[in-house]
From TrEMBL:
Organism field: Micromonospora globispora
Protein's UniProt name: 4Fe-4S ferredoxin
Primary localization: other
Gene3D superfamilies listed in its UniProt record: 3.30.70.20
Keywords linked to the UniProt accession: 4Fe-4S, Iron, Iron-sulfur, Metal-binding, Repeat
């Protein structure tokens, strides 16, 4: 059986990554115009795709608190809290 490829590469890259029998993957779109930086989308993605916790502790400095980047920890949405005067 010849595996179909898309213009940019194989449709299923799991075998090249060492997965003999990879389960189905899930993806979703996020409306970043309403993003508050809570990272719930990243948590859901990791849960749906069986990606383990990276083990990093929360820094507590902002919602963008993934103190390091690894293959399992991402910063897909840039978010930094900006203080604003009361009432805005």
């Amino acid at each position: 059986m010849i595996e179909a490829n898309s213009l940019y590469g194989p449709l299923d890259p799991a075998p090249d990554a060492g997965w003999d029998e990879a389960g189905p993957r899930m993806g979703f779109f996020t409306d970043t115009s309403v993003c508050i930086g809570c990272k719930a989308c990243e948590v859901a993605c990791k849960e749906w795709n069986g990606v383990p916790d990276s083990g990093f502790d929360l820094l507590g400095m902002s919602y963008d608190n993934t103190g390091a980047l690894t293959a399992n920890s991402w910063r897909h949405v840039a978010f930094i809290e900006q203080p604003r005067p009361a009432g805005l």
